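Box 4.2: Ligand-aware structure prediction
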Amino acid sequence: MALKSVSLWVCANHSHAQLGVSDSGSNRSVSGNLRFDLDKFRKWECCAVLAQRATTPVEDEKPLTPGLESPGAADQTQITETRGFHNDLNSLPRPLSATDLSSSPNDGSKVRVAYQGVPGAYSEAAALKAYPKCETVPCDEFEAAFKAVELWLVDKAVLPIENSVGGSIHRNYDLLLRHRLHIVGEVQMIVNHCLLGLPGVRKEELKHVLSHPQALDQCEMTLNKLGVVRISADDTAGAAQIIASDGLRDTGAVASARAAEIYGLDILAERIQDNSDNITRFLIFGREPIIPGTDKPHKTSIVFTLEEGPGVLFKALAVFALRGINLSKIESRPQKKRPLRVVDDSNKGSAKYFDYLFYIDFEASMAEPRAQNALAHLQEIARFLRVLGCYPIDTSMDK
Ligand SMILES: O=C(O)C(=O)C[C@]1(C(=O)O)C=C[C@@H](O)C=C1
């Protein structure tokens, strides 16, 4: 079976997306129209070209069946013939559909996913929740995970963005502006912290507790009762690893039950978080935006800045209220006198000064006209506006 290199391209046009496949082996290319209104999505998401490489067994190619996308698509499909094209319908590739454009199968079996921390970190568990069969790739810092995606070392990165007790993790919002990645999904997870110690150690013997600062904050009351000194670590599982490798008998770690298993520690106490509903929301970042649908509830994340003046924020928020769009998150961050390097569409960075950055998550898909109209309206008011991503809402916690 001959393996040939196939490159897939999508080019958003005014009222639809042009989509094509070129096959370097036979030097032929096929293009067609994807019946999907990408026009406004493209404008906001800057998805002028989505490119992806695939290696496809040529014998597996299926016949081209115009009209797969929706009734009436057949009359819009064009086939461009180049050298070596033969008129055998059975050997033609089938048209790509919007679902083909997500670069991975649903179980994530071919996906490499970066996360910050070491094995056993909650971020790794979040990556496995999003892509159950993925290969997880530990990174020492958030930024390393962003770079790993940009450099094609991994396919995705899963990073924490907010916690129901600790609030937002702004560092990751800042990194989003500095890197040209897109939010392609979210994962919500109940985080049940355990107190871990070396085998045989009792919790009364502990003088110090080591963990990620967010985890220490989430267990404040329990740790106060224990009267231990808190020490910050890069991540929860990293804390467990240090205790195991350094044999620290007077030090415990706040980490997951899985970290206890991996590093051979005892679980001295379970569910030690102050709030039993301790939920962390993680975002999945990818190189290309996903094509938003309307088949399931979607969320769109944006960041914008406004001119100084009375009522400007009120006007900005009204663009959503007027269209009945629910906001699930709003956050402002002072940026005064702090230049932010923002990467533009040409991938060049420039230092910009903003008074405040406003981050909003709203519950609508960019495929919906009301969302497109709201953003068109917002752009009239905003000095800077970027769509960070449009992605399906993780409803698994609601069940
Ligand atoms: O340290 C970990 O295990 C992480 O995945 C990081 C992190 C965070 O940054 O919020 C993730 C979930 C918990 O809220 C605590 C820590």
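In the box above, the bound molecule is prephenic acid. The radius of gyration is 24 Å.
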